[in-house]
Amino acid sequence: MKSRRRDITFEFEKNGFMSNYYFRFFSVVLVGIALLAAVSCSKIGNSVETVAAESKGNSINPQPIVLPTPATAAKGEQTAVFAGGCFWGLEAVFEHIKGVKDVTSGYSGGMAKMADYETVSGGDTGHAESVKITFDSTQISYEQLLKVFFAVAHDPTQLNRQTPDTGTQYRSAIFYANDEQKRFAENYIAELTKAKTFEQPIVTQVVKLDAFYKAEDYHQDYLAHHPTQPYIVAYDQPKVEDLRKQFPDLYASK
User: N or C: less crowded end of the chain, CB within 10 Å?
Assistant: First the structure.
């Protein structure tokens, strides 16, 4: 299933759904609704500077969540691959963490020949929009990244979606690189479940990382390049702000 990425008024006009008079009338109404609801994680224009009203206070966890503190993993430069909705927001969150050296948006879980934005957006390639995080584990641990992932980066209880985006490409997943990462991820989810941290069951998949495919260049550092885009303002900026508030010791300004 695709996210709401198509121009609705264009579809109405193309299909001859209504007369020119009613088309113009409903176009105005639909444009107004689109501005209020912002837009999905998709190829949306950058000319819209109006911030939707719902962008205020739209954080995943408006109140800080107390999460169990995991054990410590091995030290040195490591990578982690997480998926949880649109990769724009995930990238933005993890780029603001001390000890993170690089964050790359991309695709995991599918075949190389189908790892492009248009194809993945169809929702049937097996890919998930994800981020590869390169970090210095002498400054930040894999477990601390897990904590941020579950607390502010996404909602781990939403199955095959992250509001407002729907489809398997937006699923919650941890792609582990080795048995140690798998053990930490599974144990951490078990701890969260036992502690009843979330009201709904956690649906995050823990699967082996077969490959990570870098996304197109225009997706990289998307929030930094488009800070006033309605989708970014409504859904991703609040995540970065939640990171700053809930994890001040980990937060790094850019």
Answer: C
Nearest to 70 by CA among 170, 174, 214: 174
| Domain CATH number, residue 34 | 3.30.1060.10
Q: What is the pLDDT of residues 177-215, one digit of tens each?
A: 999 999 999 999 999 999 999 999 999 999 999 999 999
What is the DSSP secondary structure assignment for residue 79, as one 8-state letter? Answer: E
Asked if 41 is an active-site residue, the reply is: no
Full residue range of the structural domain in which residue 152 is found = 1-254
d(CA 226, CA 49): 10
Q: What is the pLDDT of residues 23-74, one digit of tens each?
A: 333 343 333 434 434 456 765 444 333 333 333 334 444 344 455 554 444 5
Assigned token pair, 94: 């993890």
| Count of C-beta atoms within a 10 Å radius of residue 27 | 16
d(CA 148, CA 131): 14
H or E element that contains 21: helix 20-37
How many structural domains is the chain composed of?
A: 1
Q: Across residues 125-144, what is the average pLDDT?
A: 97
- Positive or negative, the Cα torsion across 117, 122, 125, 127? positive
